[in-house]
Each structure stands twice: as structure tokens, then as C-alpha cells.
Amino acid sequence: MGIYVDGYVLPIAWNKLDEYKKMAELAGTVWKEHGALAYMECAGDDLEQKEMVSFKQLTGANEEETVIFAWVVFESKEHRDRVNQAVMADPRLAGMMNPDAHPFDCKRMAYGGFTAIVDL
Known about the structure:
Number of strands: 4
Largest sheet: 4 strands, antiparallel
Shape: globular
Oligomer: single chain
């Protein structure tokens, strides 16, 4: 079995980006401490695509928003399940469990788990 990746894509207002970054830094620290192999959060800055569907189109982001593209890497799906269970129980993230406390709209976030098919 190869690595397993949880991926996230979400639109966020530019003026909420600093608040989101603080939240993501804490989340990343917690995920890594509980065993995630890697944690990455990226804010889009080159999203205007004419030849294909852009991330802004995909997420419905407006002109005041950018797109967060993020992923967490695990040893396997089973490892992901164990790590995520520990992360969700970690008291440092208790404040993040309320969707109303987020600097973005959780209903506009896309999430999925992915089996790596190429890992170079």
C-alpha cells in the first residue's frame, strides 16, 4: 500500500487569510504531532485560467476571495483514520470544532481522501 492523502479546497476572503493561517498553523502542528507525515496549506495567487476550469470557478470564489488548496499525508488509509481520531480528540482544536468559529464557510469546503497512484 502507498501513501494516503486527505485533500481540501475552500474559498476564503482575502481579509480572513491571516486568521485562517493561524488556525492552519495550529492544526498542522497537531496533525504532525499525532503522526501525519506532511501537512501543507496553500493560498492561491495565480488562479485565472482560460483553457480549463480554474479553482476559483470550481469553488465559486468571488473577487474578494482566494482559494485554499491543502493536504495532509499519511502512511495509509488506516493510519489516516488513527491520526484523525487522535486529532479530533485533541483539546487544542476544541475551538475549531464549531463550524461557526471558522473564518470560512464550511459548506463551501470540498474534502476527500485519496490513494496515491504516483509517488516520486
